[in-house]
Fold this protein.
Amino acid sequence: MTRLPWFRGLLVTALTVTLIFLTLPVVAIFANAPPRELIASLGEEGALEALRLSLQASVTALAIILAFGTPAAWFLATRSFRGRSLVITLVELPLVLPPAVAGIALLATLGPGGLLGGLLEDAGLRLVFETAGVVVALTFVASPFYIRQAQAAFEAVDPTLLQASRTLGSGEARTFLRIAVPSARAGLLTGSALAWGRALGEFGATLVFAGSFQGITQTAPLAIVQRFGTDFTSAIALSAVLVVVSVVILLSAKYLSGSAGKASDARA
Amino acid sequence: MLELEARIRLGEFELNLALEVAGGKCLALAGPSGAGKTTALRVIAGLLRPTDGKVRCGGETWLDTAGDIDLPPEHRSCGYLFQDCALFPHMSARQNVAYALPDLSRQARHSRASDLLERFGAAALADARPSALSGGERQRVALARALAREPRALLLDEPLSALDSSTRSASTRELESLLREAGVPTVLVTHDFAEAARLADRIAVIDRGRVVQTGSATELAAEPSSAFVADFSGASVLSGSASPGAGGLTEVELDRCGVTVISTDPPVAGRVAVSVHPWDVTLLPEPASLEGSARNHLPARVVSVTSIGSRVRVGLDAGQPLSAEVTSVAASELGLVPGRPVIATWKASVTRISDL
């Protein structure tokens, strides 16, 4: 074994700096907000409403993402077709799109004068400045986080299990539901957590596409920005709540995918 | 009756097979790894579509590339035992079996799965996850699952390779009786000639995508069509009754031969199989002086003489079939022709004993 104390020192320094840089701001939120003040400012009008709206819109968006994204990811994972890599790139596009641009793009598509605006109007649907618009923005921005993970998880399923299911008389649909989804559970859970976390923190696309109207489109991140100029304590209080919710999501995803991973590792 | 014709490119060679298995019979596809054996099973099951081919089973056409018929796997009635059993890890043993019975009600499914597990001696394992089962137990569950739908053909991919030697002979016996009972055409894939000889009625030796010879184990060992088959069809297998002999040796009284042979394998008692490789068997003219170090002498009659290059494979009848391999020169000096009486002799140290 070669001993490189200076290199080891370098690694430890790098990790320490990274850790401090990434966690200190989060710690500072709680340091700046004494618990009593925190709770008091949460009781203030609009704060709880923003949180409720955030949870409601992000959960709805996640449900839509799961319903469409899971079969789409299965298709991408199991089929080879012309233009497959182009399709995958297009699905991943929202990952690199600046959120404000995503909002503008949604306006240009679904807004009153947009590409599909006329169709929506005929159907009596209004998205801009509506809660439904928030859901659309969150779904747009968060989908790729789930689809990427789900596709990778499906690709990692032992193909022999899928073949065994077919020889046992099950068609592709039953094989997908009963074998592929449970086998890919760990990856699907991780993907859901990532997408949910992203949706919960979404700001730019929502602001541009749906606006920031209290009780209708003002999610927690929007409420934080609005308060930040006038009432810093209340902004900090809302931030602290979001941090707690995010940490809970992260930890439960790690725990769930960890135990699911163990179950599928112990494979026959 | 199960019929297969298939042509498909496999890496650097082409798989080109035509096989037929009658109901209740077992055909072994034997050959080295990568010869295309498993590919043949996948084509039958519908997991792989060949460039050209036909699969017919019991008068039903499952695949006909010319007629554009290609039933999906779930519509072919095939019981497929995968090499690693492919049990679903997130289901219990009983749920694995019940999975094959989707058309029954929940309750009927449950009780039928329990019955099947019991039939395979795995009733006690019904609630266990596959990860908690041993190799032999997993295989029983997988067999119960594969047979749950009462398939019209049975495909077995290396059924014994995953088992350790202690469960191997018991599993072989179970498989043997199962194949007799199931009564459907069975295709067994193996790289082990002894396993093929034990379980199959006929053996098709495959090399690089082609059947090089088909026949019973005895025929292949006695009259191999090529050096490849000669090397592959390793040992002759003789049955007999063992008893512990002097000096830590095992004595085996061979059935129908009237002779006792000696092995250096650890002493056992009861019914056993004695195996010896053809190239370890020396032939002496009859009458012979039985001097020398070889302990085992078996009077036999030459049945066939097959030349494989500079070697000659000699098929013998000693009450049980046995093969010897000698050089062409020795064969002509000994005047080996069918009907000639000889003494087959080999050393105790090359005599292997296994459970029957």
Q: What stands out?
A: The two ends of chain B are 29 Å apart (CA to CA). Residues 165-182 of chain B form the longest helix (18 residues).
